[in-house]
Amino acid sequence: RVRGPAGVCLVPSTLQLTDNACLQLAKELRHSETCFVWEKGPGRYHLRWFTPKVEVSLCGHGTLSTAHVLFNEVKIATKAITFETLSGELIVTRDQEGKISMDFPEASPEKVVLDEEVKSQLALSLKLSRDSIIDTAFCSKTKKLILNVSSVSAIENLEINANFM
User: Fold this and answer.
1) Nearest in space to 30 (alpha carbons), one of 52, 61, 50
2) Phi, psi (5° rounding) for residue 157?
3) What are the pLDDT digits (tens) for 86-145?
4) Quick one: which of 7, 100, 150, 160 is 20 to 30 A from 111 by CA?
């Protein structure tokens, strides 16, 4: 069951929307993510996700929402959908009872050592103390930076300063 709302925009395969057009539509819809999907062939789609501010490389609930729309509203006949995304191919399947599921891409982050200035700026942007960031890793496939922090309270008190980014 998908809990968070996501906008789903079915885009004709002949139409190429600019990044700016996708961002403007995402701002107007005001969901955490808005999905834009173009058919590439039977059971194969190109999928992009936008927040009201940026494009993101992976959105699980948006992918499931898009699959739900394709299976239940568009009524595609396949049992599996392959989405071409910034995170690689994502495959969503539908069982005989109509339940949909997705395997997330394997992501192997590699340890990175941040420059002291970068570490300080990152801590400031997250409203953490610089010393609370113990280790960092980066996953080139998902383009995510992973932080190992010193305590549970650092996570519980985490605040993202969106104006800083």
Assistant:
1) 52
2) -95, 5
3) 988 999 999 999 899 998 777 788 999 999 999 998 888 888 888 889 999 998 777 778
4) 160
Contacts of 4 (CB under 8 A, 6+ apart): 32, 61
Dihedral of CA atoms 40, 45, 46, 49 in degrees, nearest 10, equals 150
Rounded Cα distance between 73 and 112, Å, is: 44
Cβ atoms 10, 37 nearer than 8 A: yes
Q: Are 112 and 136 in contact (CB under 8 A)?
A: yes
Point out the residues that are catalytic.
33
DSSP 117: H
What is the distance between the alpha carbons of residues 128 and 136, in angstroms, rounded to a whole number?
Answer: 14
